[in-house]
Design brief:
Length: 543
């Protein structure tokens, strides 16, 4: 890769070694609002439900569209940045992210909000791979790069922690659309600053850009998840609206894999997946995020709709989870060196499963200390798992394929988050709906609508009033808690599957960063994908 623009030259001339830390600040601000947007909407879900009246599937799409679209397009925009310049793609992503935030803030219907969230996902897909690629360019020394990635991780944790609290404050004092407006001041600041300070960089342009393959992968992922969502909404497997997307998505993904194996210059080298440690690491990342994000969304609804907490109080209740994740990230290198990736990832999964099972004790009444303890264990266990899985994945990839391995890790992270909301949300709906629809004394149309979500059940109960309304509210509340317990048990099972998958990871692994002598590498052009794979752990954090 090369750093070539006049902005980069100005920085080198102005600050010597200090310039790269200025660039890191800009990149961290970029990550900050992407991390904020991943969590800030969670506490606003009940307010969105009350105002826009989305169906159960639409509500899932409101939250799920952003991570799903982002995951689908990471490979496309990552390779596009190699050709046309990563800073250029990054700046376009800034502009799109800001514009989509403005549309989302004033969305009049669920469909408009879903579309705006999808555009936010496009912007996020343009931002994330570009920031990591530029960071690698400006930190050629592996020790400095490890420190930079550690700072990057901390910023992600801060953004994730700030999101629910800031979102809760805004919803409580303004309206739900204000959670998106916080992106616009950040964009107004970062866009001109990034244009002036960030260096341009490009990767190797060997071989044609397989845009058809990237679009094929994106369409395949979308088809599979759409089918899963329809199943979660109660559709039958053989329904055309469910079976069609599932089959089409699976077929497109199969053709994509075959295409990549045959191409001389593939977007993704599928040979990496033949390594047991690499494929197991990817699977562990997906399972960890699948369990975390889906549970977080359901937990927010539980805190607000069952326990009756305000949005701000809900955000504060979620802080222990993120702070514990920050602690796990700060101690991750030490833990990895002491116990190795197999034990680190495996026991991280076991600790997380134990915390999830502890949450099944929660019922109709608030138990703040129990909830805090479970959230602390959950955040620490999941971040420990993610750190070890990322490190193992990057170390198992050949040095010349480090860039592709990082793209796979980012895609796995985002895809796991999107699938988590879809899968666990579907389990939740399946366990919640039967008791509500079978309630006697309530009109069939009202009970069918109440089965979509607990928030909608409360609205219908208020409209009905009298004994019928009281019965609907009570039944829906108890059914939601029952569905929460079922979902927690399913999540714990998935986490234990992850612990078994971790058995294929290496028992011990020395960090290449610790062994690498501290030296300043000359600033030369290096072909993309040829830099050594750093064992720096995850650039992501549980939130």
């Amino acid at each position: 890769m090369s750093v070539t623009t006049t902005a980069g030259a100005r920085l080198r001339a102005a600050g010597g070694g200090a310039n790269r830390w200025v660039v890191l600040v800009v990149l961290c601000v970029s990550l900050l609002f992407v991390a904020l947007d991943a969590t800030v909407l969670h506490v606003a879900v009940p307010a969105v439900t009350e105002d826009l009246r989305p169906s159960g599937v639409e509500l899932l799409w409101v939250v799920d569209a952003y991570p799903l679209i982002c995951a689908s397009l990471l490979i496309l925009f990552g390779t596009l940045g190699d050709r046309v310049g990563r800073r250029r793609v990054l700046l376009i992503g800034y502009g799109l992210f800001g514009a989509a935030s403005a549309v989302a803030a004033f969305a009049p219907t669920p469909e408009v909000l879903i579309g705006a969230r999808a555009l936010l996902g496009v912007g996020g897909a343009m931002i994330m791979p570009a920031t990591l690629s530029i960071l690698r360019d400006v930190f050629p020394d592996r020790r400095e790069r490890a420190m930079a990635i550690g700072i990057w991780t901390a910023v992600a944790a801060i953004g994730a922690a700030t999101g629910p609290v800031l979102g809760g404050f805004l919803v409580e004092h303004f309206w739900w659309g204000s959670v998106f407006l916080i992106n616009i001041p950040l964009m107004a600041l970062i866009l001109p600053v990034g244009r002036w300070l960030l260096p341009e960089s490009r990767g190797s342009a060997d071989g044609p850009w397989d845009v058809l393959g990237a679009l094929m992968a994106a369409a395949g992922v979308l088809g599979v998840v759409l089918g899963v969502k329809r199943l979660g909404a109660g559709d039958q497997v053989l329904d055309a609206g469910t079976l069609g997307p599932l089959l089409a998505g699976a077929a497109l993904l199969a053709v994509f894999v075959r295409r990549q194996r045959r191409r001389e210059h593939p977007l993704i080298d599928m040979q990496m997946f033949t390594r047991a440690a690499f494929s197991s690491s990817v699977g562990c990342i997906i399972l960890a995020m699948l369990a975390l994000v889906g549970l977080e969304l359901i937990a927010v609804q539980y805190l607000q709709l069952v326990l009756g907490l305000s949005p701000l109080e809900t955000g504060l209740r979620l802080l222990p989870l993120t702070f514990a994740a920050m602690a796990a990230g700060a101690t991750g290198s030490y833990t990895l060196h002491r116990v190795g990736p197999r034990r680190m990832v495996g026991w991280g999964f076991v600790l997380t499963a134990a915390s999830v099972l502890l949450l099944t004790v929660m019922g109709q009444h608030d138990r703040p200390w129990l909830l805090t303890a479970a959230f602390v264990l959950l955040g620490f266990g999941l971040q420990t798992t993610l750190f070890g899985a990322y490190e193992s994945m990057l170390s198992e990839a050949p040095a010349h394929q480090a860039g592709g391995a990082a793209a796979i890790g980012e895609t796995s992270y985002q895809l796991g988050a999107g699938m988590g909301i879809a899968l666990l949300g579907s389990v939740m709906n399946a366990a919640y709906a039967p008791a509500v629809t079978a309630l006697s004394g309530v009109p069939d149309r009202a009970s069918a609508a109440a089965a979509h979500s607990l928030g909608e059940a409360y609205q219908i109960a208020d409209t009905l009033g009298g004994p019928a309304g009281h019965a609907l509210r009570t039944t829906a509340r108890h059914s939601f808690v029952h569905g929460l317990h079922v979902t927690l048990l399913v999540s714990a099972g998935l986490l234990l599957v992850g612990a078994l998958a971790a058995l294929k990871l290496p028992r011990m692994m020395e960090s290449a960063v610790d062994k690498c002598p501290r030296q300043r590498l000359p600033e030369v052009s290096i072909p993309a994908g040829r830099e050594p794979a750093e064992a720096a752990g995850s650039g992501r954090t549980a939130h």
